[in-house]
Amino acid sequence: MSNLTKYTKEICVQGKLRMKLCVVYFVGSLKTHRNFYNDLKSKLSMDPRAVVGDDPLSQNDESAWKQHFCDNELQALILQDVVRTFPDEPYFRDSKVQNLMVSVLFFWARSHTVGYRQGMHEVLAPLLLELYIDRKHAPTALCNTLKCFLDEAYLEHDSYMLFSAVMKGLEKFYTTGDAVPSPSGRLPPSRHIHSPNEVVRYLERIREEHLVSLDLELATHLDRCNITMELFGIRWVRLLFGREFIRSDLPQLWSFIFADGPLLPHLHYMVLALLLALRTLLLDPDPGCVLSALMRPSAVPVTHVCALALHLRDPLLHPRPSPYHFHDTTNHNSWLLSCNAETTR
């Protein structure tokens, strides 16, 4: 273990620097990643006025002007989501922060086939917030390496790097059948999409290969309520449970999820663990209460869900945690319904 890694871990333990989520992706290749982002921005930010003989009205796919207008449309599309990011968090009301998010999401979308999808801004936001807090609360006495590590001038670069690492495992859940977005980020009409989403297939496999054998009663009850896995599961996996737990729990939750690497080989255990943790609420005879519990299950502590996921993954090594007891199921469901009513206004 390098001295940098030891020192960073020591600072984490002392509570002086919140690097729980970020360290693993940064150490050793920071400058390479930052240079890569600079090169990517330079490559995709060409001024169409510099292209001799290109017509601003050209519809040729190779036209720099056409790509320029498509880029503007894509950035506007991303901004519509970004301005709604965490409305109760003052940091994300800053126009400079919003522009940074648009840039990161835009350059990622332009360099990946899947393009931009609604929800990606909610994956980027917690990462950006952690990087910002790392810098804001860093000790004043730092070695030169850590000063480089926490250089505020590279907040955008490091956000892109971390977002790209996270999306290695999430990207497949954002694909939409066999559809490919246009350069402006628009998808073709649904009638032109011929194959099911990967995320739908993934959730169906979780139900058929795991949930039915683990808890047939729960799986059957969800069927009777006409609640399919995709109804709630798409949001769960695409946002990495970002709306299912309070924001301050996300660094701990995502550190746990990414402990086995960015490809998320054991994400299905988290889906199963959250379902089983909510079992008491999900067996309610009222389908409305069941759906509400699935859409806002933040009453379950993240530590309990993680412990249950570990047990499901390796029952011999990790004992099953005691069931989580909801103090008042009726009041809890009423609260969930009122929260959903507020959200849909």
Q: How does this structure look, described?
A:
With 345 residues, the chain is mainly alpha-helical. It folds into two domains: 3-174, no CATH class; 198-343, Cyclin A, domain 1 (Orthogonal Bundle). It is 58% helix and 0% strand. The chain is built from 17 helices and no strands. The protein has helices at residues 3-14, 23-26, 30-44, 64-82, 95-110, 120-136, 144-149, 155-170, 198-214, 216-224, 229-238, 250-257, 267-277, 279-282, 287-295, 302-313, 329-343. It is globular, with a radius of gyration of 22 Å. The termini are far apart. 29% of the residues are buried. Mean pLDDT is 84; it is low at 2-25, 190-194 and 329-345. Residues 55-261 form the Rab-GAP TBC domain. This is Rab-GAP TBC domain-containing protein. One of its GO terms (cellular component) is cytoplasm. Keywords: GTPase activation. GO terms for molecular function: GTPase activator activity.
